[in-house]
Design brief:
Elements (H helix, E strand, L loop, with lengths): L2 H5 L6 E8 L6 H9 L17 E7 L2 E7 L10 H13 L5 E7 L6 H11 L5 E6 L6 H12 L6 E4 L8 H11 L17 H16 L9 E9 L5 E9 L2 H8 L4 H18 L3 E9 L7 H6 L10
Parallel strand pairs: 1-3, 1-4, 4-5, 5-6, 8-9
Antiparallel strand pairs: 2-3, 7-8
Helix pairs in contact: 7-9
């Protein structure tokens, strides 16, 4: 595709927003990265890795498709952070031209899936049901679980895929493009997300916390980047604070002799260098902000605010 083709907009150009929804840990961020062809969203095996709304923008000569990756829909929010994530996911539905509902084929539908189906049944939404992790189930299981999920929302068209292997992703993209209305481009052709590199850096650091730490500690952590500067020699300097809720959690994040923090930093630095395309010097600091998930002021300062919804 030439630069001229990319920037020229044909008369039948399609554009629109695709809301990616589902219960926690079904592979939403993995799928968005697969559709984008590059990593812009944090991915771990733990639920609630995604906490905020993030756009992934695909621009081709004939269309612009804007994905809205949302936090998983939680049945019973436990604190203000959970409430923020649920509200973010629900409000996103109103912005979407198409809703992409992702489910996990390795298990039969649960209460969370039924909750999502009930929400999607409200109004007249165009819904595509993507049955993920088809590579991880037998043919007999696939048949049984497909029927179980499809029965929750008969109005949705559906297909099988594996966000991890890429099987079915191209077909899904074609279906989504066909479902978009005709319209203009909303973002410049070269833009791939609405999130600044600083915010992506914070999520990549938090991704390593989710991957490396155990039990409840990852869910009680947040990351705020203080400095993100490109130095004259081409190295990017990044300084970030890791917030935890307990003094004991701080000790665990740091580890004996700083070993755990060093491991977190080394793994995050590798991801950050892929993001920036060059060498990164990373400094991490661990701070205690007691019960920050229940504190509206702390949530606002850490970027977990729904104020954008009030515009």
């Amino acid at each position: 595709m030439s630069e001229e083709q990319l920037y020229e907009i044909p008369e039948d150009h399609r554009s629109g927003f695709v809301a990616l929804v589902g219960r926690p840990n079904v592979g939403k961020s993995t799928l968005m990265n697969a559709l984008m062809g590059q990593k812009i969203a944090a991915v771990t095996h733990r639920p609630q890795t995604t906490r905020t709304r993030q756009l992934g923008i695909i621009t081709e000569p004939g269309y612009q498709m804007i994905f809205i990756d949302t936090p998983g829909i939680i049945r019973d929010p436990r604190h203000e952070l959970d409430e923020f994530m649920v509200q973010t996911a629900l409000e996103t539905l109103d912005d979407a031209d198409v809703v992409l509902w992702l489910v996990d084929m390795t298990a039969l539908p649960g209460s969370g899936d039924r909750d999502v189906a009930a929400l999607l049944a409200e109004g007249e939404r165009r819904v595509i049901l993507a049955l993920n992790k088809i590579d991880a189930v037998s043919p007999a299981e696939a048949l049984q679980r497909t029927e179980a999920y499809v029965s929750l929302l008969r109005a949705a068209e559906w297909l099988h895929l594996s966000a991890l292997t890429g099987d079915g992703v191209a077909e899904l993209r074609d279906r989504l493009v066909a479902a978009l209305p005709e319209g203009p481009r909303y973002y410049p052709a070269e833009q791939i997300t609405d999130v600044y590199e600083r915010a992506i850096a914070a999520e990549l650091i938090r991704e390593q916390i989710m991957l490396q730490l155990r039990d409840e500690i990852p869910y009680g952590t947040a990351v705020r980047v203080r400095d993100f500067k490109e130095r004259p020699n081409g190295t990017t300097y990044i300084s970030a604070d890791i917030f935890v809720e307990r003094d004991t959690h701080k000790s665990i994040v740091i580890g004996a002799g700083g070993a755990q923090l060093k491991a977190l930093g080394a793994a995050a630095r590798e991801q950050l260098e892929a993001l920036t395309g060059g060498k990164v010097f990373l400094e991490l600091w661990v701070k205690v902000e007691k019960d920050w998930r229940r504190n509206p002021n702390a949530l606002r300062q850490l970027g977990y605010s729904n104020e954008w919804m009030k515009d």
